[in-house]
Amino acid sequence: MGPLPWPRLLLLGCFAPLLPPLHAAEFSPSLDSDFTFTLPAGRKECFYQPMRKEASLELEYQVLDGAGLDVDFHLLSPKGETLVFDERKSDGVHTVETEDGDYMFCFDNTFSTISEKVIFFELILDNMGEDGQDQEDWKKYVTGTDLLDMKLEDILESINSVKARLSKSVQIQTLLRAFEARDRNIQESNFDRVNFWSMVNLGVMVVVSAVQVYMLKSLFEDKRKSRT
Asked: Are residues 192 and 118 both part of a single domain?
């Protein structure tokens, strides 16, 4: 499998067995982050994401490579309650309204004994409080602009609209790249499988041809001996 052409992917190279205390990684409170990592066979990997009250957490994941293209997924609240449980799925999209605390999500490959999985996931955080503070800062400078054709509030609204559309475009492009990577892995796997069975068929044909030639030669030799 070649390197994935994603500019903002973080490759997690080493893993530890998920035994108490849990091995976990914490992400910075960015609005949009996407990652890819390799989950070894028989392992489970968990991550924590701190969230604020009345915010929104959207998580999308895909299994890009590995036998079966499936993984178990768990999403737990700060109180330890299971919010989402996907059993042996290749992809999923989940959105939850959050409260203050750390949300934990886990990818479980313990059911597989030999096949590692390459997993891509994306986090989208909404209403984290930063945009609202920015708008309040902008409003300090709105006083006295009534004579302008376009107020600073209108400019802010236009900028936010463009920002939202650009973020959506980046998100869609990232997901399309993930789909393309998974389809490429499937095609490469099918290509290797076709080549393997083609070589097996070729070997069988060669063996059968050799056996047929030997049997025909033996029949003619028997006939010659009976005549003498």
From this structure: no
